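2024-03-11 09:14:02 DEBUG pipeline.ingest accepted 1 chain
2024-03-11 09:14:02 DEBUG pipeline.ingest length=173
2024-03-11 09:14:03 DEBUG pipeline.predict start
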Amino acid sequence: MKEYRSLVLTIIAIFIITFAGAYFSPTFSEQKTFLELFVLFGSLLFIFSVVVIFAAIGFASFSLYLSLFLAAVMGMYGVEGALLVTSITYIVWGSVFAMEVLLFYNHIISAQEWFIERYTFKSFKNEYYVFYPMMLAAYIFLELVPSIFYRESFLKFHPSKVLKVMEEILKPG
């Protein structure tokens, strides 16, 4: 834990020194240069934090690709572009994960095989918590809304049951 503390302190020190340089600069061009440097450091911190988050939730092989892609997008379109790419990545992968969870909940064999091929229980649990809002949104749009329009009964969705069954299926050994 101490290595993280020193990393955070180093990052904070970089931002404070850069901001202090901008604040105490005698000319406008120097202030502008320091503020551009401040934004650049923030952009790099954003890229690395997104990479660490994606690696932590199980996208280890995807993280390197995402970091290069985010760096390229940020270079062309700025922080807004990188934030948009991150949001779209969350929505797309979350939708895939949520649909597979719903298929698994409805006892579709291919969905169970999909999870067994790609996940350990730890990685599944991480993505389960990260994409929980997407699972609920998928349930609403794929189960509740059609059942209201067509006046059909629908299967109630209990995400906690999925987690318990996945713990049994994805146990190592």
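2024-03-11 09:14:41 DEBUG pipeline.report Residues 78 and 167 are 41 Å apart (CA to CA).
2024-03-11 09:14:41 DEBUG pipeline.predict end
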